[in-house]
Amino acid sequence: MKALLQRVTKASVTVNDEVVGRIGHGLVVFVGVANGDNEEDAQYLSQKIVEMRIFTDADGKFNLSLLDTSGELLAVSQFTLMASTRKGRRPGFTDAAPPEIAESLFNRFVELLKTSGLRVETGRFQQHMQVEIHNDGPVTIMIDSRERLNPRSS
To answer: What is the C-alpha separation between 67 and 12, in angstroms, rounded?
Structure first.
């Protein structure tokens, strides 16, 4: 699973002119599910996201997490994070999990986020969405759950 985090002052997602999710200060998390992803990937990402220290303290340093700031989350499924651009000019999506698997794992990921006690909103799976983001910083971070399997030596 991949998650693209964007720190925001506010954000919303609209489907067919209806706002289906809205948050204030927090994170928008775009989530892509790959073939072979499982419960461990969802657990890893959900914990990493709520504990990631990307909010500034009184000294302006990245020392605070979403949990520390009582921020909010807007999770949006986005299969295009699985795009392969190795060949040609059109991205390929063969690495993306089939919709029925991706939806189930995305929903599990959202459930895990909610266990943090933070407010969690979502878009709608497999729908065309308009996402309005008021980027804060901007701060944008990519997390790939597969990196946990191949940690780099420091």
So the answer is: 20
